[in-house]
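User: Hello! My lab partner asked me to get a predicted holo structure for this protein. The small molecule is adenosine-5'-diphosphate, SMILES included with the sequence. Please write out the structure tokens.
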Amino acid sequence: MILELDCGNSFIKWRVIHTAEATMVGGGIVDSDQALLGEVIGLATARLTACRIVSVRSEEETAVLCTLIAQAFGVQARVAQPAIQMAGVRNGYEDYQRLGMDRWLAVLGAYHLAKGACLVIDLGTAAKADFVSADGEHLGGYICPGMPLMRSQLRTHTRRIRYDDASAERALTSLQPGRSTVEAVERGCVLMLQGFARTQLEQARAQWGDDFTVFLTGGDAPLVRDAVPMARVVPDLVFVGLAMACPLD
Ligand SMILES: Nc1ncnc2c1ncn2[C@@H]1O[C@H](COP(=O)(O)OP(=O)(O)O)[C@@H](O)[C@H]1O
Ligand SMILES: CC(C)(COP(=O)(O)O)[C@@H](O)C(=O)NCCC(=O)O
Ligand SMILES: [K+]
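Assistant: Hello! Below are the structure tokens for the protein in complex with adenosine-5'-diphosphate.
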């Protein structure tokens, strides 16, 4: 069984897969290394033979996590590394090593699934969009604050925007104009994300007409799925790319 980790800026997404049977044994989302170990150790059947990781965290943080995994499970984690070219896709950055690894792997996964031009929209701590042409050229992309960052900037830099997580969740039952601070902020930020997604779609249409596939991934993908109904929602898109970048068989 293989432990797969996607270490974003806010959360670690994990899953344990059974390669021979192509099944998923377990998975989840945690906010710390310790919580991760707790959950994976708790998976009674977890007899891991390998581990692969994608991380947008610092080298040091990633190394600490690899050490913890080696100690807990006796496996040496493989960490996905940047590449100029892989699986038919050419990295579009001037300096290929600067492209976020989560973006790169999502792009590899998307091109593999679409087998043609694609737009990847990944909504996590940051909102990201990436474009890949039909012949596998990564054309670059866009990064802007995601839901958690927009929210926390407003809370941090204003004096009267204060609310708790429970009321934030309740506020998102509708996107009508807000009648309280929490509704106004939460709904306003969702509309920003939807606007981001729609604008990327316009860009893709201007380039490719209707001949492309849109992928939607990241923890906040559900907030924009109605705005881009044609999108394929693939929560594990980064893991698809991770398996391609770090084959273990
Ligand atoms: N079970 C969950 N736990 C925490 N956040 C979640 C969960 N499901 C969805 N989310 C949303 O996902 C967002 C984080 O997305 P994610 O793609 O994990 O970010 P990152 O990769 O930057 O850590 C949070 O803002 C939150 O709104
Ligand atoms: C843009 C990101 C911060 C997104 O991180 P995330 O929202 O997935 O936590 C990450 O992909 C990153 O650190 N990229 C390096 C900069 C770049 O891609 O140009
Ligand atoms: K991410």
